[in-house]
Amino acid sequence: MKSVVVHGPGDLRIDERPDPVPGEGEVLLTMEWGGICGSDITYWKHGASGTAVLKHPLVLGHEVAGRIAGLGTGVRGLAVGQPVTVHPAELIGDGRLPDRLAGRTNLYPRIRYFGSAAFDPHTDGVFSEYRVVRAAQIRPLPEGVGTEHGALAEPLAVAMHAVSRAGDLRGKTVLVNGTGSIGSLVVAAAKHRGAATVIATDIAKTSLAVARAMGADETLDVSGGAALPQDVELVFEASGVPAALGSVLRATARGGTLVQVGNLPGTPALSALGDLVTREITWIGSYRFAEEIDEALDAMRDGLDVSPIISHRFALDQAAEALAVAADPASGSSKVMLRLGELSGD
User: Mind listing the pLDDT tens digit for each residue in 60-95?
Assistant: First the structure.
């Protein structure tokens, strides 16, 4: 089978690997669609993502959907041909968490994640024609949700988790700073959760257009230095740019809440943080997701349309070109999709 494999910084190849066979409790998938994430780009460009450093070739990809092609022994409740996506996280060990973290499996200290070099050996991703997955990680797609949209359940789950961290959004005004694919999905998740008004800000007009299509009531281009809206009770920072934190904190109302969903660097960076104290802002981190992938699928079933964030589509053999487009701000890309195999009728 063909797989999208990063061998080192700037070294991406389409490798031939043996077709996998499902074992006990496992499911064989024939993959159809995959979405390119920022971590895929950083592994390709730098050979690392955060503190995870590439030591061996790694199959990329964790935003995927396909169809069941085979069932290992002991698998029940699933059927060959069924369209599915996958929860890309697997807890290593007994899975126990302290009571204060009950249900927050995303904070378990040892997690294997598809397409991650955090462990050695690495955890291969799902940008392949086929992939064997534990049955527990399979999530059937609801009626009416095709595999292209199903591949976006993972990033939508990230957005759903961020919104959950903010509490009750019903009837409130929300600010989303940064409208890349995750920021635009936060816009949609906030509207889905009942936010009355969502204001989206970015420096790219193309990204703001996507945010409007995903439900933003107002958008603001801050590329020319325009000030962010002031005194917003609930703010989501989705750009991950440390230099933006000062203005985002200033935009947050006194006593308000700021949810940090954009990944911040693991190295020292200058930021103006004084307002965090003087305005008594609650600053909350948001990391991946627990089981919100189920809520994401339900939301798509109920009409949440993720199609506006899809900007480009490429075949598996064009993975290098797809990554280059996804990494280039001048391309105007949002979510770049890879067609990983032959498509069955959705």
Answer: 999 999 999 999 999 999 999 999 999 999 999 999
Work out whether strand 335-339 and strand 26-35 pair parallel, antiparallel, or are unpaired.
antiparallel
Q: Per-domain residue ranges for the chain? A: 2-152+306-339, 156-285
pTM tops 0.90, yes or no:
yes
Same CATH topology for 2-152+306-339 and 156-285: the answer is: no
Say which residues have a Cβ less than 8 Å from residue 327's Cβ, sequence separation at least 6: 41, 44, 45
Give CATH for domain 156-285.
3.40.50.720
The residue type of 245 is: L
Give whole-number Cα distances, 130 to 65, 68, 126, 290, 300, in Å: 11, 10, 8, 25, 25
Cα distances (angstroms) measured from residue 145 to each of 51, 101, 182, 195, 304: 35, 32, 20, 24, 10
Question: Environment class of residue 65 by beta-carbon count within 10 Å: exposed (0-12), middle (13-18) or buried (19+)?
Answer: buried
Whether the link from the prior residue into 155 is cis, omega within 30° of 0, is no
* DSSP-derived 3-state class of residue 221: strand
List, for residues 238-253, the tens digit of each pLDDT value.
999 999 999 999 999 9
* Rounded Cα distance, 332 and 243, in Å: 22
- Say if domain 2-152+306-339 classifies as CATH 3.40.50.12780: no
Q: How far is CA 257 from CA 40, 168, 232, 285, in A?
A: 30, 12, 9, 11
Whole-angstrom distance, CA of residue 43 vs CA of residue 245: 26
Sequence-ordered list of residues with C-beta below 8 angstroms from that of 257, at least 6 positions apart, any chain: 166, 167, 233, 234, 235, 281, 282, 283, 284
CA distance 312 to 267: 32
| Rounded Cα–Cα distance for residues 1 and 246 (Å) | 48
